[in-house]
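To whoever is on call:

I kicked off a structure prediction for a single chain this morning and the downstream step that reads the tokens threw a length-mismatch warning. I double-checked the sequence; it's 458 residues and nothing unusual in it as far as I can see. Pasting both halves so you can look.
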Amino acid sequence: MTSGVAGSLARVLTPLEVLMLTVSALSPVLSVFLGGNAVLHLAGTGAALGFIAGGVLSALFALLFAELAAAYPGAGGLYPALNAVLGPRWTFGYVALRLVLIFPIAAFFALGLGSYAGALLPGVPPLAISAVAMALAAVVASLNIKRGAHVIALFLAVEMAALGVLAWTGATNMVRSPVDVMLHPLHLTQGAMQPVSLATMALAVVSGMSMAAGAGWAMYFAEEMDQAHRRIGRVVAWAGLIAAVTIAVPVVLVVLAIGDLPQVLAADAPMAEFLRISAGPTVSTLVTIGVVAAIFNALIAAIMGLSRQLFAIGRDGVLPGAVDRVLAIVHPRLRSPIGATTVLAALGAACLLLGEKRLLLIVSGNFAEYFLIGAAVIVGRAHGLLGHNFKVPLHPLVPLIAIGAGAGVILANWSDAGTARKSMALLLGIFAAAFIWHEARIRQGRPAIDLKGSDIDE
């Protein structure tokens, strides 16, 4: 363990509080109003199929996270389980990827808030709004986690109301056949509606899967949950199901209800444009206010979760000593990872400069997670390490699907010769470099990196 720890995290959360934190962090509103915008721009009406298929896959993969979380809960999230089952040589590559992805993930949340708040604050640069939101969210995320969970619960009610209005507007204005949307997806290309290619459709499914993912956020809070071994698995599984339903349903209903496809798809924010046309400017403005509040809530919850993984990485001594000591600092009174939260907010703000498309492709290209959770459940079951507190049904079908999804993420991103391929090459290169570096370290007779990621003693 790193000597920089100024305290430990407090085990004070109930299952319901962890579920609320998890749903807030995976943010159905952000996935629908920001991720939905990006996928509508990418695949047009193919967004419906992308979110349905992606939601089903994400709900299945949540069961894998649940089994791993129930066996190895800890602030490190997934990597304590990977380390215990697959060993540090594979886990270190995952941790290296997380160190690259954590900051763009936070930036993606903040950028979404800036783009929507910008409509309410004309004349104020959205990027400036995003940066300020990042700072404010970091302050709130630094508070005592139980108090933060109660604040987040209020925002979550606003989030669900905004999604309800969007879904109702779509359900009462449907103009096209679900069968036609599923079999003949169209997107806007050079000002005209064109059929969606298989490569683009694959990217839409990958993006939909990424937008509906997030049940694993619960793992970051496991170290602060009472009786986590016994209870965390069900929380993760329920979070996966809730995410799939609350994200896919509004997107599908909107796609079925868009009247003027070229006009809506050409808008900077298609979801907001659909509401403006279908429900009027007043309802659109009220929903936009709710969306801004909900995304700010998601940003707070995301910073709370991601900072705990950074804290665990610092506590395990993965990075150079001075960096580890900063990341491992815990506020003595609030019991929050104040050092990791500060670093996350600063570097996350810098990542805002990457822009929406690059951030979407980076955060949706996490191929390694699907490979590793599938492999970990197969290996863990074979060695009797998993399945005691929560067990995935239909074994080994679900983990094999996850491994296939990992390959699908790589192929879908590689099929795009532009930004997606460059992002995937970057992520593949980071994972490979981390794996090779760790193997070289072992061959030199040095010890493996200690990746416990957990301080639970139940």
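Update from on-call: the warning came from a stale cache, not from the record. Cleared it. Sanity check on the structure: Residues 1-6 have pLDDT under 50 and may be disordered.
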